[in-house]
């Protein structure tokens, strides 16, 4: 018996080795071909894009630092005026942050309802779950800037259209994230509350929210950071705040670059500040809680 | 060969390993026993340099292991293979690739990325698998294998490193008795045939007795016993495990005949 197996084993190892080598060779061939196709597509795509570009990538490449250099040198010359300019634009910054905060709050409340109504097992009307899901798809599919442009056309410029535009997008985005959290919530407390005769909103408020609240708050804070950037950008299309001032300062060209620099500093400092604060609280919510 | 001198590891104010001294002159098979939290794993992890020591030194063939940094440290790790309780294979990769990971220290990242292992290494990997009796599993994904087979893949990865020392951290703690025997037997065979040093953390006394030439007992980070299996009496074992009122060797044994000795339990309860 043992002799027989000894006689067979080397031969079978050979077969295993050669069949595995064949497999490895095939895998390498496919991998190499994929890599080749990837590079061909990248290079040809780049050449097409470069050919259609008005200026040309290579011609423009060395000028890439010119504008920042202009801004920086002019800001450096007028550096004495910077603190005054920062103070001057601080109210615009507050407006930008206000837009972001209000729209995050309204968007989060909207997202909460969209998520609870669009999650299997929790929905009040299970049959129209797809309706709420598609609704949140549509709300986050349309870019903020498009909604803002339409609303500015209708309502006129100012912070309110920007706020509504960001809130709509936020509700859609948070609705999706919230419902993924809610799907993993434990349904036993909900069942327990249902057995006492609690209605739907009581069940959600007491059975689901305590479980999902840390995640919801964490996602909302993340969204708040994103919304500060979004509200600064919306200023470019006339929605007020820091973005509006930045566009003016940049459009007027040389001579007002010190103002552009002051606004950049404000925006950068604000985003870093809120990133740090919110990531600190998000870490505490997801990890800590002093368990 | 291997000389461990007042090796200490502290985590905050807790001392996991407290001034351990071990000298090993020739390749032998060594079992480390002790209850969980005694510092067995930390000791092995410090030898492999997965964990840095707080104090003390490890010397191997005149080279101070605890002082190694960067590439020299990784080179030592390639000479000092480690086997884990939970196997620590890459589950979604095939068995041969997992074994070939034993050669990573000699390969560049780029060659690894494109899976460019030399044919000789691939053949050697399959020969090692064959030696451990799992050559047929070569093309399968590691996650598709049973626990005992996965642990043998991990041993094959260790052998692929061609190490001087094999460290095994509870290699059989998550295996059933049959697979545990196969794995321990493989480690013993590797020690006897290849002359490699094997240091294994074990959680059962009888395994340590049956397979090891030398047994080291640890308790609360200190080495409290170092001798041959024959010197490891029930009394000594009670010291190692900290003689609680309900302790008996039967409690840690997996041998069937110990079940027939109910007297031990009551007798020791009064000691």
Automatic annotation (TrEMBL), chain A:
It holds the Pfam family BPD_transp_1. The keyword NADP does not apply. It is found in: Cell membrane. The chain crosses the membrane at residues 29-49, 99-123, 144-168, 256-274. Its main location: membrane. It comes from the Bacteria. Keywords: Cell membrane, Membrane, Transmembrane, Transmembrane helix, Transport. Residues 93-278 form the ABC transmembrane type-1 domain. It is a multi-pass membrane protein. InterPro entries: MetI-like, MetI-like_sf, PhnE/PtxC. Belongs to the binding-protein-dependent transport system permease family. NCBIfam families: PhnE. This is Phosphonate ABC transporter, permease protein PhnE. It comes from Roseobacter sinensis. The gene is phnE.
TrEMBL record, chain B:
Residues 2-245 form the ABC transporter domain. SMART domains: AAA. PANTHER family: AMINO ACID IMPORT ATP-BINDING PROTEIN, PHOSPHONATES IMPORT ATP-BINDING PROTEIN PHNC. One of its GO terms (molecular function) is ATP binding. Coiled coil: none annotated. Keywords: ATP-binding, Cell inner membrane, Cell membrane, Membrane, Nucleotide-binding, Translocase, Transport. This is Phosphonate ABC transporter ATP-binding protein. It holds the Pfam family ABC_tran. The keyword Transferase does not apply. It comes from the Bacteria. The keyword Translocase applies. Gene3D superfamilies: P-loop containing nucleotide triphosphate hydrolases. The lineage of its organism: Bacteria, Pseudomonadati, Pseudomonadota, Alphaproteobacteria, Rhodobacterales. The gene is phnC. CDD domains: ABC_PhnC_transporter.
